[in-house]
Amino acid sequence: MTVDSIWSYPPQAVREPGGDPTGFTVVAPDGVVGHVDREADHFGMRHLVVDTGVWVFGQSVLVPVGVVTGVDAGERRIEVACSRTEIKAAPRFRTDSETMDPGYLRRVGEYYHGLPPRDPSVA
Question: Which CATH number applies to 4-108: 2.70.70.10, 3.30.70.20, 3.40.50.720, 2.30.30.240?
Fold first, then answer.
C-alpha cells in the first residue's frame, strides 16, 4: 500500500455511492473504536473523524479510509484493519482545524502507512 492509497477506500470496502457513514460504529479487530462523527476529504486525503466516547478520554481520532476493511450499511458498521492500541497511538487529533492542515494529515498518513500489514481475511 502506498502512502497515497491510505486516503482511498480499498476495493474490499464497498460503500454505497454517496452514502454517509456518520453514526456508523467503527470496529477494530480487538473491539469498538467509536462512532463516525463525519467523513472529510481535504487535499485528496479522505478520512473519518471518530468519536471514541470515553475510551480515549472523550477524544476523537482521525482514521484514514485506507485502513477500512469492510462497510456494512445495513448494520451501520465500519471495520478497520488496525487495533485500538494502534489507533490510540496515532498522531493526536485536537481540533477540527487539523483536518485542514496538510502537514498534520501527512503525519497521520505516514503513521498509518507504517503499521504492519494485515491480512483482511484474518479477523
Answer: 2.30.30.240
